[in-house]
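stage 2 :: seqdesign
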C-alpha cells in the first residue's frame, strides 16, 4: 500500500475563534498553524485565508502573503489554495488564488445545501471554467465532492476534457446537505471513481477520525484540520492543527501505513 498523504485544512472559511481560539486569521497565525501541521506530518496545506478580523477572503494579495509565510517556514510543503471561498462569492472572486500558480487547487463539482439559506453554488458552467483555467495554468485540481452525483459530474467533465486524468478526489463526508459519514458511504464513494484515481477523505466533526481510520485501511488518504473539526476528542479542543495531524499519524502507525513526505506526495499525485 502506498504511503499516506495527510492534508491539513488549517483554517477554513466558516470556523471561528469562538469555536476554538487557535483558529488562525492573521498571516502570522496562518504560518504558525501550517508549520505545526507540517512538523506533525502533513505534506499538503489546504489553504483558506482571512482578514485579520477573521473575515474570509479570496483576495490574491492576501493569499500571496500567506503562501510566502508558509513557504518560509515549510519550504517543501504542497500548498493547495481553496477555490471554494465562502458562500456567496462570485466565480471570479473564488478563482483569484490560482493566478499565483500553485501546484494544486480545489475544484468543487456540485452544488450543496449548507443549512438554513446557505447554498454553495457550483454550476456546470462554473465547473467547466474552473477546470479549463486549471488546465491552462498547469494546476492539479483536487476534485471536491460532497455526494455521489458530484463524482458523476467530475467523470463527465473528465470525459469532456475539462479535468485531466488521473483525477484526485476529496470525499467530504458528514457535511450538512451532503452524504453522511458511515463506512458504507465511504466504500460507495471509493468504488465509484475511475480506475487509477486517488482519493482523500475529509470527515466532518465527530466523524473526522473514524473516517480517517477507514480511509487509511482502504488505501486512501486523509484530510484533517480546523476547517473540518476543532476537537481532538469528545469535548477536548485541539490546541493546534498539529494535534489533529499527530492523531492521524498515530492511527496510521497502528494500522501499518507510512506517512508520505511532500516529495513522496508529489510522486503519488503526479505533480
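stage 2 :: out
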Amino acid at each position: 500500500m502506498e504511503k499516506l498523504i495527510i492534508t491539513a485544512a488549517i483554517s477554513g472559511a466558516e470556523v471561528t475563534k469562538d469555536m476554538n481560539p487557535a483558529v488562525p486569521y492573521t498571516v502570522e497565525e496562518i504560518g504558525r498553524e501550517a508549520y505545526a501541521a507540517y512538523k506533525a506530518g502533513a505534506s499538503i496545506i489546504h489553504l483558506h485565508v482571512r482578514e485579520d478580523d477573521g473575515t474570509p477572503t479570496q483576495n490574491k494579495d492576501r493569499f500571496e502573503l500567506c503562501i510566502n509565510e508558509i513557504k518560509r517556514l515549510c519550504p517543501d510543503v504542497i500548498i493547495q489554495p481553496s477555490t471554494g471561498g465562502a458562500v456567496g462569492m462570485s466565480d471570479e472572486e473564488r478563482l483569484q488564488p490560482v493566478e499565483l500558480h500553485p501546484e494544486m487547487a480545489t475544484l468543487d463539482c456540485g452544488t450543496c445545501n449548507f443549512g438554513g439559506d446557505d447554498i454553495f453554488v457550483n454550476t456546470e458552467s462554473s465547473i467547466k471554467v474552473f477546470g479549463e483555467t486549471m488546465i491552462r495554468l498547469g494546476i492539479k485540481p483536487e476534485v471536491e465532492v460532497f455526494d455521489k452525483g458530484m463524482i458523476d459530474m467530475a467523470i463527465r467533465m473528465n470525459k469532456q476534457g475539462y479535468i485531466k486524468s488521473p483525477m484526485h478526489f476529496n470525499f467530504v463526508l458528514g457535511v450538512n446537505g451532503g452524504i453522511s459519514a458511515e463506512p458504507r458511504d465511504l466504500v460507495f464513494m471509493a468504488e465509484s471513481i475511475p480506475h487509477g484515481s486517488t482519493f482523500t477523505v475529509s470527515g466532518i466533526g465527530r466523524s473526522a477520525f473514524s473516517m480517517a481510520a477507514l480511509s487509511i485501511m482502504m488505501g486512501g488518504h486523509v484530510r484533517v484540520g480546523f476547517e473540518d473539526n476543532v476537537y481532538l476528542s469528545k469535548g477536548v479542543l485541539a490546541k493546534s492543527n498539529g494535534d489533529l495531524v499527530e492523531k492521524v499519524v498515530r492511527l496510521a502507525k497502528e494500522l501499518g501505513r507510512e506517512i508520505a513526505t511532500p516529495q513522496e506526495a508529489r510522486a503519488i499525485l503526479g505533480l
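stage 3 :: structure notes
- The radius of gyration is 17 Å.
- The mean pLDDT is 96.
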